[in-house]
Specification:
This protein is α/β, with parallel strands linked by helices. It folds into two domains: 234 residues, Rossmann fold, CATH 3.40.50.10840; 177 residues, Molybdenum Cofactor Biosythetic Enzyme, Chain A (3-Layer(aba) Sandwich), CATH 3.40.980.20. It is 36% helix and 21% strand. The chain has 13 helices and 18 strands. The strands form two sheets. Strands 9-10-5-11-4-1-3-2-16-17-18-15-12-14-13 form a 15-stranded mixed β-sheet, with helices on both faces. Strands 6-7-8 form a three-stranded antiparallel β-sheet, with no helix packed on it. α2 packs parallel to α3, α6 crosses α7 and α11 crosses α12. The protein is globular, with a radius of gyration of 21 Å. It starts with a strand and ends with a helix. The model has no long low-confidence stretch (mean pLDDT 93).
Amino acid sequence: MKIQLGCIADDFTGATDLANNLVRSGMRVVQTIGVPNAPLAAEVDAVVVALKSRTIPAAEAIAQSLDALKWLQAQGAQQIYFKYCSTFDSTPEGNIGPVTEALMDALGTDFTIATPAFPDNGRTVFKGYLFAGNVLLNESGMQNHPLTPMTDANLVRVMQAQTKRKVGLINYKTVAQGEGAIRERIAALRADGVGVAVVDATSNDDLHLLGPALKGMPLVTAGSGVAIGLPANFGLKPSLQASQLPAASGLQAVVSGSCSVATNAQVAHFKASGRPARAIDPASLMHGQSDAVVQQVLAWAAPLLKDGPVLVYSTAEPEAVKAVQAQLGVAEAGALVEHALAAVARGLVGLGVKQLVVAGGETSGACVQALGIAQLQIGPQIDPGVPWCHAPSENGGVHITLKSGNFGTEDFFSKAFGVLR
């Protein structure tokens, strides 16, 4: 069974974000959690392999991405899409640049594009600079990201620091002229020795103009926005059938580990609505206390779930996050919180939760792994970049949404369950 598009995503929320855009554009999509160890059974147009490789050492990210590539090639993928965050989360060491180069080498291609543009979520690229809403990336709160602080909005500079290949730009004027002009610019850049071109995009119209110019390109690297212009290259059109899921049942809960500005606002909104919410203080997880904290949280949640969704969160302001990191170190503080929230998610499902919202890329990865989810069917969109998914199991499965920290409106946690109804 051959697929048309094979995608490699560097985190779990990013994978569902990409799958969501492909489904909305008419592709039937399955998302796998990690690289499958068997051939694809479902009849679909695209597969998104979700890795948890955004912030691991670059060599490990490369190895995992190449394993995913080999599996996708074995399924007959005609084009490969490496998906990263719309805020280009990375450091000068990677992992966007190193993984891009490794995939280019493996595919034997000397050129690819790079653009995290996702206008539906306010991520636009203009003259090579990435904007989040109305401000430059490095003024958006991303400069305080605990793992990948983004202090430069110039993507050509950011990408050049991560790759040995020469990085160039396809600017907004060229994009506006459409496929022919974009292809001409690509030819000129290649002749000049450029291997990676950052592409401007300030609207969905730009992404639809870019799409045809990417037909036949062995490797595309981007956020999820570019995905809206690709299915048409395979003769596909939007359809409601692509996003149908089984009917939802069971209890409802939210688990949030993101410390982004958007998620902080979503937590505040949920609490202000009067719904029950409980915070996990990262400092309380130190010295082997994590299991006890998890059990306390589950004991608190058990009698409340019958009355509607509950929220368990470790979301905090940047200053609080930095204080804990100073005590434990960045990696250990993050791992402690992820482990605890994943155990909470597993416990909540054990209590009968079958509709679960998870906020934060790293948190989503930990929760999905803790729940033993191997595959997700992609369903309807809640907000741009965030769909409901269904994980099948013997007891009817779990509906789950994996929300990137930066995505969603303030009322997302409440609104999400209404979409399933």
